[in-house]
Amino acid sequence: MKDKHIIKSDWLKEMLHSINVGLVVVDLECRIQVWNEYMEDRSGYTAEHAIDKIVYELFPEIPEEWLKNKVSSVTTLGNQSFTSWEQNPYLFKFKNYRPITGAVDYMYQNTTFMPMSSLISGELNHVGIFIYDVTDAAISKLELEASNNALKKLSRTDRLTELNNRGYWEECLAKEFARVNRTEQASSLIIFDIDHFKKVNDTYGHMAGDEVIRQTAKVLREGIRDTDIAGRYGGEEFVLILVDTEPDSAFILAERLRKKIEALTVIYEDMEIKYTVSMGISQATDTTAGYMKWLECSDSALYISKESGRNQTTIYKKSGA
């Protein structure tokens, strides 16, 4: 009759090879000592091929220094360590064959590193690496996050122009005003609108007017920095928050936008539409009484541009300054 210890050992080996989890045991030099069937099936390497190979040489996608440090820390401290797919999508670059997430090329993995001691000396001289396929859960979470981000973006976007809507850019303006007060750094606000827009609607129709607004927004989006915040105020009026920008620099940008729009011809149903914009600029200062007052200052500068003949840019100056 087989020795009980031999029978238990056989059972244990069978379990390790049949579980639906990858199991790799490495020594302190990261040389593979155990390679179960799960790893054979996913990697294409048999246990005979993998045993005694250094794991990061067999799988170049595994960062050598990172794995050495992980093995060293686990055996030195005697504690388990975990890595999530959110920290790194995978340890082993296995192809994904799951039907639900078939569009994903590689398997998302969670990984557990477990210190293992010698049965003879009790010394911690091996590390068990457990690989868990979490592709379905990972993709579900990523899809949910993408959906939530899309909804969030939709809730703050003006549909006609694809710029930030008033609710969102006004929230950004309040935050920027608070930042300026806290850091005393420069920040400028541009307001501009389309000159004689009612005439555009009356002459070409409201659908043509919408196209003029869309094309104006396109010029605005393409002409600003990633840190700038552009939005639609309402109707034919737009705003642009320029972070860390003095009024003189804002004036240069405003004039560049104004001239691009002046040179633009909007084509709508074989009609050619030429138009201009007027702009106003102001800077938030320590004497500005709130972000709404900042907005009013830019609006006052815009009014001066329109009263002075339109198609121009004005920087706000306090009365008597």
Walkthrough of the structure:
The longest helix has 21 residues, at 135-155. The chain folds into 2 domains: 4-142, PAS domain (Beta-Lactamase, 2-Layer Sandwich); 156-315, Alpha-Beta Plaits (2-Layer Sandwich), CATH 3.30.70.270. It is 44% helix and 21% strand. The chain has 11 helices and 12 strands. It has a 5-stranded antiparallel sheet. The model is unreliable at 4-8 (pLDDT under 50). With 321 residues, the chain is an alpha+beta fold. The chain has helices at residues 4-18, 37-43, 47-50, 55-58, 64-77, 135-155, 166-183, 197-204, 206-222, 247-263, 291-307, and strands spanning 22-27, 32-35, 81-83, 109-117, 124-133, 187-194, 229-234, 237-243, 266-268, 271-273, 277-283, 313-315. α8 (197-204) crosses α9 (206-222).
Descriptive terms for the model:
Beta-Lactamase, single chain, Alpha-Beta Plaits, alpha+beta, elongated, 2 domains, 5-stranded antiparallel β-sheet, 21% strand, 321 residues
Quick summary of this structure?
By secondary structure, the protein is of the alpha+beta class. The chain has helices at about 5-20, 35-45, 45-50, 55-60, 65-75, 135-155, 165-185, 195-205, 205-220, 245-265, 290-305, and strands at about 20-25, 30-35, 80-85, 110-115, 125-135, 185-195, 230-235, 235-245, 265-270, 270-275, 275-285, 315. Helix 8 (about 195-205) crosses helix 9 (about 205-220).
